[in-house]
């Protein structure tokens, strides 16, 4: 109940023995015709009737491996995500049919292990809770990195298209685009994909088998971020701002491109905080040493590349004022994404 899933005990024992064990384990409370079934009773039903009662069964007694397979198929047709445990050679078909097959590592046969997705090394049923926690954490980390990667890709393409159409100029050099991908693939992956399991994920409802990887909230974040970055960087690229910030020096164009590149990197840095804030408070984020080290490494890498290796990225050094302004652009991008979403969720609730 804590993680919103239902346990069904499948056994070849007789009904009375199975009921006693299930009640002792807390699986079965009140006994009724719907939550206690035998393999023979379930086998005689039609496919439609099996689907109707499969979700209600808590004790499945006197069940053969083929009866167990019928139950798994009925649950899957009903749209449920099914995990099945097994250890013998007769469980292989059920383990293969289930969405997640869990084989026992100590007592399980080689055939059961080969046909399973996950092996429980200690043969402890409670360990499945850890499996669920790790899987939910992994799924969340994948969502975060996909959102981060989409934001970078869509934003970069949108900025380049707008700049070429409006100003007939390319805002980023090829080597700068390569560096952006380097930051995303290395630092972004470490900051978002590498994260220990979080206990609060166990209290969330499970992800449905037909649910989308990219949620509606994630799409909102992506759209808001892209619109903000395209507008602000298009403004920075305008001739008026160009003369105001850089004057009429020959390096003005390079300064502008370097500044746009720098601003985009800081938008990504603050965007990582925004992505992590989806299910974490700021205090929890700041306790993650790996995340902070990765963010610090990203900023240090950017300083070294911009200030000392500018010749390799077709850029120039930036003064302190432009660094502060680039950081502000990134900070405002985080606020521009966070607060509208908070207001929208508040009004919807």
Task: Give an overview of the whole structure.
Helix content is 62%, strand content 6%. The chain is mainly alpha-helical and 349 residues long. It folds into two domains: 9-128, HAD superfamily/HAD-like (Rossmann fold, 3-Layer(aba) Sandwich), CATH 3.40.50; 134-348, Up-down Bundle (Calcium-transporting ATPase, transmembrane domain). Helix 5 links the parallel strand 4 (83-86) and strand 5 (100-104). Helix 7 runs antiparallel to helix 8 (174-192) and helix 7 (127-167) runs parallel beside helix 9 (216-236). Keywords: Magnesium, Membrane, Metal-binding, Transmembrane, Transmembrane helix. It is found in: Membrane. It comes from Noccaea caerulescens. One of its GO terms (molecular function) is ATP hydrolysis activity.
Features:
single chain; 349 residues; mainly alpha; Rossmann fold; Calcium-transporting ATPase, transmembrane domain; three-stranded parallel beta sheet; 6 strands; elongated
Architecture of the largest domain, CATH level 2?
A: Up-down Bundle
Output the CATH class name of the largest domain: Mainly Alpha
Question: If you consult CATH, what is the topology of the largest domain?
Answer: Calcium-transporting ATPase, transmembrane domain
Total domain modules: 2
Give the overall shape, derived from the CA principal axes. Answer: elongated
Continuous helix count: 14
Average pLDDT number: 80
Strand content: 5-15%
Unreliable stretches (pLDDT < 50, length at least 5) are none
| String of helices and strands | EHEHHEHEHEHEHHHHHHHH
- Report how far the terminal alpha carbons are from each other: 25 Å
CATH superfamily of the largest domain: Calcium-transporting ATPase, transmembrane domain
- Total strands: the figure is 6
Structural class: mainly alpha
User: Percentage of helical residues?
Assistant: 55-70%
Largest sheet: 3 strands, parallel
Based on CA atoms alone, the radius of gyration comes out at 28 Å
